[in-house]
Amino acid sequence: MITYSKQTISSSDIQAVAKALRSDWLTTGPMVQKFENVVTSYVGARYAVAVANGTAALHAACFAAGIGKDDEVITTPYTFIATANSVLYQGGLVKFADISPDTLTIDASKIKTKITPKTKAIIAIDFSGLPADWDRLKTFAKSHKLTLISDAAHSLGASYHGRKVGTLADLSCFSFHPVKTITTGEGGMITTNNKRFYERLLVFRNHGITRKSMESTGSKQGIKGDKRPWFFEMKELGLNYRLTDIQCALGLSQMRHINAFLKKRRELAYRYHKLLEQLPHATLPREPQGYRSSWHLYPLRLDFKQLGKTKSQLFAFMARHGIKLQVHYIPVHLHPYYREHFGFKPGDFPIAEEAYDQEVSLPLYPTLTYSQQDKVIKLLKQFTTQ
Ligand SMILES: *Cc1c(COP(=O)(O)O)cnc(C)c1O
Question: How many A from CA of 127 to the centre of ligand 1?
């Protein structure tokens, strides 16, 4: 079966995990910071905090940004539900802005009308690995004093005008789910250049615990002179969002292969570009000038109405030939929870809805062979022309 995505695990990855299992630390040990350090130096950020998954990374970023009850956060409905849910976890409200039909990322010109005195942050998604328009977003966020959060679940390794994703927003959130650029099974990370955000992320990851200050319980001394080595304080409501040493060992090992993974994804994406150029009623994904995608997805768009066929027919046809496609995304506002709680309805975000109607994610992962890819292409041609 050829799927839309899957992990690449080498024997050195397996050895790295086995070594972690034989060590003294299964969690909260030395692998965590090592993994964080490798990612910070890779993306060029000052700080990184490893967490349990990408959703936890987004939640922690909302916490660090100070999102609280009734604060508003602007994002797009054309994303995985976790992006918007992370705002709700903090008691905030989600304000959606539609995407640009060219890039499928948030349309910066549509954000303006969504701003109110309660707006605190923007979360932009680098859909399919293509960076959002970060310079425009940054200018906008600055002038309205908003925190800029990047849902970079797709875009580890992508860059924008020579700068790597992970440094373009105030807080950048990565996922290490098996389909993403690198994997730790489940896992996530937030990168930032802001020390205050970094410290808040560390506290949030570990139940809101701090060991630094004793003031509120009456101690005159800091932890150094304190005679109570067991002592700690909880000052904020955090969670257990820690990532294990076993997972960080896998992440560290995966980071050794990241450039090879990215190169292979790019090569396969360009091959799709070339070989699908003539596909009828198709729109191929493109990188605007200065953008370098990490090619997490190959989001082909087919105008099914023009074709006179349905997406379900395409899925059934491909499945009969052993190919399992995927769709990204069912717009968040169309999910029952969002409709029932916030009154969204079809037609609210027409560009995202049209993208959903047309989008099909083609198989794209580092171990996909040319002959497998050729089979996908041949079948697509057959489906669209017969
Ligand atoms: C994968 C993903 C997430 C969530 O990551 P998990 O690690 O699965 O929690 C969030 N946003 C987007 C856009 C994603 O693709």
Answer: 11
